[in-house]
Amino acid sequence: MESSEAKFTNTSAKLLPQERNGVYADPIKISSSQIRYCLYARKSSEDDERQALSIDSQVKEMVDLAQAEGILVTDIRRESHSAKSSGTRPVFNELTNDIRNGMFDGILTWAPDRMSRNAGDLGMLVDLMDNGHLREIKTHGQTLSNSPNDKFLLMILCSQAKLENDNRGVNVKRGQRSKCEIGFRPNMAPLGYLNDYYSGKGQKKIFQDTERAPIIKQMFEKAAYENYSGRKIYDWLKDETTLRSRSGKTLNLSVIYRMLNNSYYCGMFEFPVGSGKWYKGGYEPIVSRELFDAVQKKMVVAPKSKPGTKSFDFTRIFKCGSCGSGITAQERIKSLKNGSLKSYIYYHCTQFKDFDCDEPYTREENLIEQLSELLKQVPVPEILSKPMLKPELDKFMLIHRTMQGQSQNGDGTETDFDLTGFIHYIFQEGTKEQKRELIGCINATICIKEKKVYTEITTISI
After folding, report:
1. Alpha-carbon dihedral of residues 51, 54, 55, 61, nearest 10 degrees?
2. What backbone phi and psi angles, to 5 degrees, belong to 244?
3. HEC letters along the chain
4. Quick one: CA torsion of 326, 334, 305, 260, rounded to 10 degrees?
């Protein structure tokens, strides 16, 4: 049996099918006073529209109405999108633009709230009417023309839909507060607990996961009483336990730290997070408050210096040749036999891509030595062209000629240029920015593996 929409599409007297369907209308049959309607059907997947008709049902109902009343429909537009926010629906925006351009002058829709549930889109519809672009809006129960009374009624109907949305948001927040007050957070429980999906609304509870909860309790005990670091707990969980995420993956280090800081496990939670509103849980805690507080004391670290107070020359330049992570640096102070202190800078893998990467630490002096060998392969004009190196180049040439007893008539070209000496001079006397610009002359990704510095093509071993 032919559907009502297909049947409607074949009605030559009253329907002008969409051009993209390959069917064209005979303009002689259309009266200049006849309103050209576009059928607009919308459905959102959000909770507030679960009771609304489906898009296909809306189209069927309005097609039947158009056939019964002899309405000229020239196009059908469908959209699955929420109308809570203005200007966010691409199909609706296209429809209003087409109305403004004279393609349609009427809208056929199931109800006014299909077109707008916000003040912005409502204002756009009224503006189209005020400017004479939109002559009529027809729903299953009423016709709203471009008259003061009908436009006022349209604003009331759409404003009522907006009011329902706003009230629904207030009701949701009130329901969340009520749930918190009886001891249950309104979202998914963290790892170690199970949500109740089978009880009736308002009766759902939280239960301990009998497989994961004991292991999580051991995590807290090891951190509090056995001085386990986050990394050591990570290794223990991965190698000696079956604790995995809900998707079956190994817990990463950041998740472990978040779990150890999560007061939900001791029966307290904050909702919303950052609001300062705390509630006592109505579920069985996995750890005691005393154990949780002991872990927090163990995890307190001395405050770090502000960003930028310690700057290293060669960070964010190299890549770990073993795992592909970045290379960072740290300073170590060692006491010498004569009682003095000496600073050493070591570069090492950040282990961002692989927690188990065992790439050894490399002294900065060793890096500079190997970088110098790589830079000797760079053409001299490439180095001489760097603007940031020009001030130091002039100083170096003056010092070099003075030491060699030469006149100052040289022009600093590659014929009298000591490349090796200039490279060592920049690494010793240059600023951080000049050192980085010099290294940039290599024009390749620089890697470190087993304390060796190399590009992706050439390996330098010293």
Report:
1. -90
2. -135, 170
3. CCCHHHHHHCCCCCECCCHHHCCCCCHHHCCCCCCCEEEEEECCCCHHHCCCCCHHHHHHHHHHHHHHHCCCEEEEEEECCCCCCCCCCHHHHHHHHHHHCCCCCEEECCCHHHCCCCHHHHHHHHHHHHCCCCCEEECCCCEEECCHHHHHHHHHHHHHHHHHHHHHHHHHHHHHHHHHHCCCCCCCCCCCEEECCCCCCCCCCEEECCCCHHHHHHHHHHHHHCCCCHHHHHHHHHHHCCCCCCCCCCCCHHHHHHHHCCHHHHCEEECCCCCCCEEECCCCCCCCHHHHHHHHHHHCCCCCCCCCCCCCCCCCCEEECCCCCEEEEEEEEEECCCCCEEEEEEEEECCCCCCCCCCCCEEHHHHHHHHHHHHCCCCHHHHHCCHHHHHHHHHHHHHHHHHHCCCCCCCCCHHHCCHHHHHHHHHHHCCHHHHHHHHHCCCCCEEEECCEEEECCCECCC
4. 70
Name the E strands within 327-392: 327-335, 341-349, 362-363
- 174 assigned to some structural domain: no
Q: Which residues pair with 136 in a beta bridge?
A: 106, 145
Mean pLDDT of 320-342: 85
pLDDT of amino acid 204:
72
- The CATH number assigned to the domain holding 144 equals 3.40.50.1390
Instruction: Compute the average pLDDT of residues 177-181.
Output: 79
Which of 267, 299, 331 is the last residue before a domain boundary? 299
Residue at 373: amino acid letter = E
Pairing label, strands 73-79, 37-42 = parallel
pLDDT at 15 over 80: no
Report residue 276 as tokens. Answer: 């300062």
- Say if residue 160 is in the same domain as residue 199: no
Q: Which residue segment(s) compose the domain that 237 sits in?
A: 193-299
Residue 283 and residue 279: Cα distance in Å, rounded?
12
Q: Are strands 37-42 and 106-108 parallel, antiparallel or unpaired?
A: parallel
Q: How high is the pLDDT of residue 158?
A: 77
Confidence of residue 3 (pLDDT cuts 50, 70, 90): very low
Q: Name the range with the highest mean pLDDT among 109-123, 203-217, 391-405.
A: 203-217
Of the listed ranges 48-62, 125-139, 186-200, 226-240, the least confidently predicted one is 48-62
Q: What pLDDT is attached to residue 162?
A: 67
Q: Is there a contact between 392 and 412 (Cβ–Cβ < 8 Å)?
A: no
- Domain total for the chain? 2
Q: What global pTM score does this model have?
A: 0.40
Residue 237, domain CATH: 3.90.1750.20
For position 153, what pLDDT does the model report? 84
